[in-house]
Amino acid sequence: MEQNTLAWHETLELHELTAFKSIGLMKTKMGLNQIHDHHLKNIYQQTIQELEADLGELAKFYPYTPKPGNSNEYRIDNGFYAGDLLAFSKTAVRNYAIAITETASDVLREVLRNQLDTAITCHERIYNYMYRNEMYPSYNLNQLLQSDINMVKKALSM
Description:
By secondary structure, this protein is an all-alpha fold.
């Protein structure tokens, strides 16, 4: 690494990936005991191993981000569920945007546009909830990054 720190834009992408993968790992681990099909269970276990490895690699870049401050330990509570809905709604917005560019039918495109607007509204609603309840410190990069590290530790320890 040439620089002592990551650039702001890559730090934010690192945050997005780390948060998304941490929540995904927690959900995958929580669902593992509910699966009775042997083949599907093996797929889940492989996915867990891959997510753990990915998070371990991503966490190594956090010392190169702006210096995080302290924050509370991440818990599986409203913050977890709100973060999961935020990630889901963000992914929905991206998926609709991609689907619209692949649509040849005017009728389907209009339906997708309407559903994209709904997905954007959903994202706005959950983001505002999280921001107001101090679950997503968008304007405090140090807190945001420390929260990521706490989520990685929690997900890996489950």
